[in-house]
Amino acid sequence: MGDEQCDRVRVEHSAKRVRAFSGGELVVDTTSPRLVWEVPHYPAYYVPLSSVRAELRPTGRTRHSPSRGDGVVHDVVTAGGTAREAALTYPDSPVGELRGLVRFEFAAMDEWLEEDEPIYVHPRDPYKRVDVLASSRHVRVALDGVTLAASAQPRILFETGLPPRYHLPLSDIRFDLLRPSDTRTQCPYKGTAAYWSVEVNGTRYDDLVWIYRSPLPESAKIAGTACFLSERVDLFVDGELQERPETPWSRSLP
After folding, report:
1. Domains 6-118 and 130-241 share a fold
2. Long-range Cβ pairs for the range 221-226 (8 Å, 24+)
3. 110's torsion region: left (phi>0), alpha (psi -120 to 50) or beta?
4. Gyration radius of the chain's alpha carbons
5. pTM higher than 0.85 for the full model?
6. Which CATH number among 1.10.10.10, 2.170.150.40, 2.60.120.260, 1.10.8.60 corresponds to the domain 130-241?
7. What is the reported pLDDT for 4?
8. CA-based diameter of the chain, in Å?
9. Predicted pLDDT of residue 39
10. 112 three-state secondary structure
11. CB under 8 Å to 174, separation ≥6 — which residues?
């Protein structure tokens, strides 16, 4: 996880009940978690040590953070097994709100629940919003002069901090140009995405199209649609070519 300066670490109380499990055993159960923005893009959960049900066994290792101080690394031990180096405490942190709390590595736990609903990848940011709106704008997607899809019934997904994503009905996409991909990604707001690559004019472009086959409830309206990576294709909206957005996915085409 990246680091920021001390004055950039933001800590907020959450009213959600948060639980985490490892090896089939309950590791933590709290109704007073803290959301901590250690990096600007998403928060992490820190929980009171008093809410921990597993054994936190110090490894003798520390991790230094310029903003949070020296973190003490712990194994998380339950009857179901040991999650190695899966917990971190900052007993002498210059950020006073972190003392007496522990952060569990999200991916090291088998399951996380907010109230009784599972969460994925990382805690959802309460300041981030996803809106999916039906539209009658005409959207055409092209690459290397070849039209890949065209639709007058897109679902436009607006997600805080990201460019609009134009999800198109599957019937409006040229599947003869798509090639299956083994790539899968997860999003805490949308669910698990499967991918296709695109092959045009003898060139293959990896992972340009994705679909959420079973989207999470807040993004349910993108079910039955697929989206092209607008950073790497030509996107026309109502006949006007859109500028390719600059994001972490703006890598050069082959």
Report:
1. yes
2. 221/132, 221/134, 221/155, 222/132, 222/155, 222/157, 222/167, 222/190, 224/169, 224/170, 225/154, 225/155, 225/167, 225/168, 225/169, 225/170, 226/167, 226/168, 226/170, 226/173, 226/196
3. alpha
4. 22
5. no
6. 2.170.150.40
7. 39
8. 62
9. 83
10. strand
11. 147, 148, 149
Sheet architecture: strand order including 234-237: 146-151, 139-143, 234-237, 240-241
* Total residue count of the chain as it appears in this document: 254
Specify the pLDDT at position 171.
97
Residue 196 confidence (pLDDT) above 50: yes
**Amino acid identity of 143?**
L
Q: Is residue 56 within 8 Å of residue 27, measured between CB atoms?
A: no
Residue type, 242: Q
Segments making up each domain of the chain, as ranges: 6-118, 130-241
26-77 confidence digits (pLDDT tens): 999 999 999 999 988 899 999 999 999 999 999 999 999 999 999 999 999 9
Beta carbons of 171 and 142 less than 8 angstroms apart = no
Query: Residue 183 contacts by C-beta under 8 Å, 6 or more apart in sequence?
Result: 194, 195, 206, 207
Tell me, what DSSP letter sits at residue 110? S
Written in H, E and C, the secondary structure of 156-211 is EEEECCCCCEEEEEHHHECHHHEEEEEEEEEECCCEEEEEEEEEECCEEEEEEEEE
Which amino acid is it at 144? D
Q: Return the CATH superfamily for domain 6-118.
A: Domain of unknown function (DUF427) (2.170.150.40)
Q: Say if CB 134 and CB 155 are below 8 A apart.
A: yes
DSSP state of 248: T
Provide the CA 112 distance to its chain's centre, in angstroms.
14
Give the CA dihedral 58, 63, 64, 69, nearest 10 degrees.
-40
